[in-house]
Structure formats: C-alpha cells, structure tokens
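Appendix C: a fully annotated inverse folding record. The material below is reproduced so that readers can follow the format used throughout the book. The structure is listed first as tokens, followed by the designed sequence.
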C-alpha cells in the first residue's frame, strides 16, 4: 500500500514539503543539491521494487483465479468467482458458465449495484434459460401430441387418408427430434414412437392389402356381370336370329372360349354366389349346345339339302328313317331360331310321320283310326261351340283327312256328322267374317298408311310382316275385294324395300367375294410360309386379323357361303395347328420357369433367390406366344412364387429398418451421454478427451442420420479444440517453468539451434523484444531499447503476428541458453511470463 501511495502521491507530498516556511529555500536547495541526489535515487529504487512486487502479487492472484476458473465445475464455484473475481473479464466469464436459474438469481442480487455488466449477464442468462426451458417444453408437448396421433392411428377404424395422416405425423416427429441435442426426446419416448410407428406402418400395409383385395374383388364382380350379360345378350340374339342369317361358327366358338377364360379369371381366388354360378353354367351350356348343333348342321348341310331336293323333285316326303337320323344327330336345341333348311326338313318329317300313321291305321288298327276321327270331330264340335274359327278350320281339315283314310264302310256315319259340323263352320265363318270385317278394313287402312310412310326398309318389311300375320290370325276373309285391297296395299308398301334387298343381295355378293379373296391370300401365304423361321407372333396376329376381316364381311348369302366357309375353316386349322404346337412348346418352357420360381421361393441365401427371380422374369418375357387361358394360369403360379420371394425381401427390409431405428436410438443415447460429459469439458483431462474423440469418430463413421452425424462431428470438434487448448496450456506451463527456473539440460533439443540463430544474449534485450512482439507496454527506462528493437524487427520483416509463437519460442530458448542467472532478475522474469501468457491465446 505504501508503494502504491508513493507512486500515486509521491510528487504531491514532495511539493508540500518544499512549501513549508522557516528555512531559506535557496539554502536548503543548495545543501540538498549534492547530498540529496543520492537519497532521491535510493527512494525511486524502493518505489519501483514495491510496484513490481504489487504487480507480481496481482498477476499471481489473477493466475490463481484463472486456474480456479478452469478447474471449477459447480455453479457455486462459478458464483464465488463471479462475485469476487479480481478482473471484470474473469467475473464475466464465471457468470457466463453458471447454469442453474437459482444460482443466477443469487448472483443477480449480489452483483446488483456493484457490477452492471455481471448483473446484465445474469439477467440475460436467466431470460435465455427461461426461453430455452419454454422452447423445450413446447417441443415436448408437440412431440406428445404427435405420439398421441400415431398411437391413435394404431387403434382407429377410420381409414380415410390413413397414409397421409401417418406420413404427416412421421414428418412432424422427425422435425421435432432434429432441432438440437437439448430438445431431443428421451429413450422411452423414442422407443414408444418407434413401436407406434411400426404398428401404424403394419396397419397401413394391411389397409393397402385390404383395398387391393377389395378392388380385385370389385373388378372380378364387374367382369362376371359383364360375362353373364354378354352371354344373355348373345342367347337372345340367337333366339331371334332370322332364318336366312346363319351365325359364324368361328366367331361363336371364339366368344364361348374367351368368355370361359374371362369367367375363370374373374372367379379366381374369390367366392362366387351359387346363383351366378348356375347362371353362367346354364348360359354357357346353352351356347355350347347351340354351337355344337350348328357345327353338326353345317357338317350335314349338304345331306339335308339332298333330302329336301329329293322330296321336292318327287313331290314326296323323305323317309322317316333318314329324317329322324339327321334331325336326332343334329339335336337342334329348343328355343333357338332354326335354319330354314332344318325347319323345312322337320316339317317334311312331320308330314311323313302323319302319312305313316294314317297308313298304319288303315292296315293295322282301324279301331284306332276311327277313334281318332271321332275324337277330332268331338274336338271340332267343341271349337265350334267356342266360336274359334281358325282352329275349327284346322280341325275340320284334319277330320276330313282322317275320314278319307277310313274304309268305305266306316265313312257313312262319320261323314254325316262331318257335313253337319261343316254347315256350322260355314255359319261361324260368315258370322266371323261379318265380325272381323271392320278389323280387316282397319288392317287395310294400316297397310295403306304404311305404304305412304318413309322408313328404314328392314323396319318397314317387318311392319308389313306383322300386318300380314294379323290378317292370317283373323282367319282370312271371304270378301275377295277386301283381300285384293289388302294385298295391293302390301305390294305398294313393299315396293321401296325391293331396292334395298336387291342392294343387300349385291352387298352379300361383294362380301362373298371378299371372303374368297381372304381364302386365296391365306392359301398363298401357307404355300410360301417357311415354318422353320416363321414369326409366330405375326402368325397369331394374321390369324386374328383374318378372322376379324371374315366377320366384317357380313352379310353373305347362306347357301353360297357354305363352301367358302368350309374352305376358310380348313385354312385356319392349317395355320392354327403349327401355331398350337409352338404355343404348347412355349407353355412347357414357362412351366419350367414356374417350377424354378417355386424352388427359389424357399432358397437361401435370399439375395441369390431375388437375383434368380429377376432372371426368371427376364426369361419369361423372352418366351414367345402362348394360349391365353394356359398363359394366365402359368402366370398366376409364377407371380405367386415371385411374390413369396419378394415378400421375404420386404420382411427383411422391414426388419433392417427396425434394426436401424434401434441403432439410431442407441446412437442418440450415446451422443447424449457424450454431450453430457462434454458439458463440463474444462474438467476433462487429455486421456478422457481422447477416449471421447475415439467414440465420436466411431459414431461419425457409422450409418447415422445427417442430423446425428452433424451433431457428432460438432462434439468431436469441441473435444479436439479442448485437446489443443490443453496442449497449449501444458506447453505454456512448461515454458513458464523454464523461464522461471532455466535448466539447459531440460530444454528441448532444437532450442540450441534456435538460440544460436538469434544473437540475443542480454536478458533485458530478450524481454523488451518479447514485449514488442506481443504488443505489451515497456517500462520508461527501456523505451530507447524498444525503439532499436522495433527498427530491427521492421528491417527483418517481423511486424506481423503469423509467426509470433515461433518468435516467442526462439526468445525463450535464448533466455534459457544465452543468458546468465545474474541477468535474469525477478522483474524481467515476470515481464517475460506476462508476454508468454498473452501469446498463449495464439492458435497453433
């Protein structure tokens, strides 16, 4: 304290002494001029020594508190230094390292009114901690909400936008867990999230599978309904088909086969109602029976025509055996429109049967013939009583035939009764003629009106036939003029239709010519085809195109088309036979692929099975044409086997994903533990830091998420920086020790070379050089020396700070090796130590 007072107030005290009265000032000054100079020099030396001692003590206290700050680890230790630190910088740094809010509140109370900066730091730290705590709490609450949403998804039965809701929740969780380390969720929350997310993902896969299955079932149901509707439509069309229009056997067969395949595909792997099954079976069987009957009819068409031609030429019906044989063999299904030739044959056969029955009755069973005639007469009498004219006419004609077939002796009684009933029939006809005349007149008027109408010829012809049928249903008319009127109107109405049907006949001929051209082109192709190198796909397309053009060439004349149709069918069979052989060969190749895929479905290792499945898929696509139905069946088996292989892969990926999530949780826990240790980094030694760096290196090199990898890299940089800092501090301590107690034997070997390169042998010169290099103040008595050194440094180009550490190392080497113990005073030692402490802040 005395030295401090002397430094601050020494000159002032001296002035007060000089101003005291009583003695002659000049005399005292003269007396003291010589002898007092020595005393003044002695006083200044003591003051300087006191100042140096005070500065050294202050520096030692500061260094001690710095060491204490570096070693401190608790908030209480930081609080004591923040309150009682010697320097403002030390108090501020200690305040910055306090973490607990209650400790900061204590510091705020203690520093209030004493240290504004520390007070502001404490207040700011409290606000930051409160804000950080609130931020972490907000993140925790939001994570809890997201976790609750995901857990709700694992239980909900509302699958609307399920996938979008799950993805949104997962995205929010990732965003909320990748903010920073302080806001990371705990292991328990992360584990709950992983379990809930995995369960929700499993439910998502189930939902997708259910949706796909429902879509497949819906498509199959629609396909089944379309198949049933198409079969029903085709059946209705065949039942109402005009006799002169014969359907194409090839197109009908193609329809049956395609719809059968379509039904099989639409019923695969699903339950079909019994009603739908029965409907398809019934309609399919009816179409199949019709196709088979049509095929048999076309095969016997020439024979039928011969029978008809013979019957027409001889004006006699064909024998019963011939007609029965043909008709029973064809077995035309009931309900379907018959071809005209078949209808005529059936009528001739019926007439033959009737004739045979009549002859048999006359020769073998007269009683039965008489009974038949009597029965017919009874029936005629009943019909007359009911006033049914048309059936009565038919019954009357039948009775006439039956009576004519009886012997002369049997006719008398029955003929009289027939004459009586004939009179009643004439009366009924006259009465009915009177009653039906207005209706017939109306039919004449309708026919005349129809003749004046412009409409489609086919529609008009149909209307004409309807009116003609209505005229027949009325039983005709005895009025010849009324009949002539009706016929004239019908002829006039039909006149515009003639041109149409003539044009239609011409169109039939053109279509027939087209079909003959098709046959000629197919024959030319078959003759020129090289079956050893033929393009089978092109051949299949050619077959399909030929059938389509054949169908498009419609209508045709039925009789003229028979031979052309046979020619076309024979050509198609010639083309389809080798095509079928090739298809069956390719189907065998695909069957081998299916067997190999089924073997791979349980093959290990899985990677080889997947690679093999991909190769099999490539081979599958390279195989040529196959039949549709067989190919679909083989493809279904192949797809099932491949699905089993890739399902194993998906399960493995799912398991790997769960393992990665587990490893990520583990990595987060390890990072959290390392971050906790590094939170008090100044308390760690070099060995601990090296171990932490090794762990962080392992984590960084592992497969972490980008956020975790970045976080681990940041922690590694902190540990490495602290490691370098410890190294600098250790080197500084070593240099300070050598400066204070030089030991030539303990200095580094290379210092001898550094000391020899720098020609500094004076301790004071070394210290002033060091102060100049690090920018510290130099005492007044060494200012001239500092000026010389500054000039020297400028000449040597040492004004920068890039090589300051190397320069200080050279100076310390000269201090230890080039100076004597007498030169290294305490003052110079302290000054050099301060220079080293300032230089320690320079990075390596």
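Designed amino acids, in order:
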């Amino acid at each position: 304290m005395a030295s401090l007072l002397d430094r601050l107030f020494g000159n002032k005290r001296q002035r007060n002494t000089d101003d005291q009265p009583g003695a002659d000032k000049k005399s005292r000054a003269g007396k003291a001029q010589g002898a007092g100079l020595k005393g003044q020099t002695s006083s200044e030396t003591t003051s300087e020594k006191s100042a140096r001692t005070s500065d050294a003590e202050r520096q030692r206290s500061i260094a001690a508190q710095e060491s204490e700050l570096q070693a401190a680890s608790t908030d209480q230790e930081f609080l004591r230094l923040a309150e009682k630190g010697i320097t403002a910088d030390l108090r501020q740094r200690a305040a910055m390292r306090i973490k607990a809010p209650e400790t900061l509140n204590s510091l705020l109370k203690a520093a209030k009114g004493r240290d504004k900066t520390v007070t502001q730091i404490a207040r700011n730290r409290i606000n930051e901690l409160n804000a950080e705590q609130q931020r972490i709490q907000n993140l925790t609450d939001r994570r809890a909400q997201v976790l609750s949403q995901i857990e709700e998804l694992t239980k909900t039965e509302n699958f609307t936008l399920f996938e979008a809701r799950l993805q949104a929740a997962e995205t929010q969780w990732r965003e909320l867990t990748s903010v920073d380390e302080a806001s990371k969720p705990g292991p328990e929350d992360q584990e709950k999230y992983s379990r809930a997310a995995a369960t929700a993902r499993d439910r998502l896969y189930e939902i997708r599978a259910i949706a796909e299955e429902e879509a497949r079932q819906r498509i199959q149901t629609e396909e089944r309904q379309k198949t049933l509707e198409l079969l029903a439509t085709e059946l209705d069309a065949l039942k109402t088909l005009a006799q002169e229009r014969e359907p194409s056997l090839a197109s009908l067969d193609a329809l049956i086969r395609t719809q059968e395949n379509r039904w099989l595909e639409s019923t695969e792997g699903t339950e079909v109602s019994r009603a739908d099954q029965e409907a398809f079976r019934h309609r399919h069987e009816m179409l199949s029976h019709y196709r088979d009957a049509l095929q048999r009819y076309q095969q016997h068409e020439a024979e039928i025509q011969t029978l008809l031609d013979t019957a027409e030429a001889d004006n006699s019906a064909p024998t019963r055996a011939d007609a029965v044989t043909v008709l029973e063999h064809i077995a035309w299904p009931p309900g379907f429109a018959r071809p005209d030739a078949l209808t005529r044959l059936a009528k001739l056969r019926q007439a033959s049967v009737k004739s045979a029955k009549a002859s048999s009755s006359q020769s073998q069973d007269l009683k039965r013939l008489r009974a038949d005639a009597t029965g017919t007469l009874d029936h005629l009498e009943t019909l007359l009583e009911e006033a049914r004219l048309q059936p009565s006419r038919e019954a009357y004609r039948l009775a006439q035939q039956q009576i004519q077939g009886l012997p002369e002796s049997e006719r008398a009684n029955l003929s009289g009764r027939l004459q009586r009933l004939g009179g009643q029939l004439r009366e009924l006809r006259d009465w009915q003629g009177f009653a039906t005349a207005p209706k017939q007149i109306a039919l004449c008027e309708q026919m005349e009106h129809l003749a004046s109408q412009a409409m489609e010829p086919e529609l008009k012809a149909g209307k004409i036939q309807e009116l003609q049928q209505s005229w027949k249903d009325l039983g005709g008319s005895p009025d010849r003029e009324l009949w002539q009127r009706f016929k004239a109107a019908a002829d006039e109405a039909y006149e515009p239709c003639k041109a149409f049907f003539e044009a239609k006949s011409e169109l039939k001929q053109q279509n027939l010519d087209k079909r003959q051209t098709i046959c000629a082109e197919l024959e030319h192709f078959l003759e020129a085809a090289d079956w050893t190198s033929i393009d089978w796909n092109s051949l299949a397309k050619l077959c399909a195109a030929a059938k389509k053009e054949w169908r498009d060439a419609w209508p045709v004349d039925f009789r003229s088309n028979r031979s052309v149709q046979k020619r076309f069918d024979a050509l198609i069979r010639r083309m389809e036979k080798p095509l079928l052989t090739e298809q069956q060969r390719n189907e065998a190749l695909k069957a081998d692929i299916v067997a190999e895929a089924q073997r791979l479905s349980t093959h290990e290792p899985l990677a080889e099975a997947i690679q093999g499945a991909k190769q099999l898929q490539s081979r599958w696509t390279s195989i040529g044409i196959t039949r549709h139905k067989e190919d679909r069946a083989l493809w279904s088996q192949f797809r099932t086997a491949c699905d089993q292989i890739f399902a194993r892969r998906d399960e493995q990926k799912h398991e790997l994903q769960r393992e990665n999530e587990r490893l990520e949780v583990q990595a987060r826990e390890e990072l959290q533990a390392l971050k906790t240790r590094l939170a008090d980094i100044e308390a760690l030694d070099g060995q601990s830091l090296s171990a932490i760096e090794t762990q962080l290196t392992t984590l960084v090199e592992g497969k972490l998420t980008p956020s975790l990898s970045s976080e681990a890299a940041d922690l590694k940089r902190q540990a490495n920086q602290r490691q370098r800092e410890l190294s600098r501090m250790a080197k500084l301590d070593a240099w300070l020790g050598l400066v204070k107690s030089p030991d030539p034997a303990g200095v580094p070997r290379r210092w001898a070379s550094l000391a020899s390169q720098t020609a500094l042998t004076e301790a004071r010169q070394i210290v002033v050089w060091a102060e100049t290099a690090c920018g510290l103040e130099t005492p007044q008595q060494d200012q001239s020396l500092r000026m010389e050194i500054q000039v020297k440094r400028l000449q040597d180009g040492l004004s920068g700070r890039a090589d300051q550490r190397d320069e200080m190392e050279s100076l310390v080497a000269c201090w230890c090796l080039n100076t004597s113990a007498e030169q290294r005073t305490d003052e110079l030692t302290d000054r050099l130590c301060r220079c080293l402490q300032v230089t320690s802040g320079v990075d390596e």
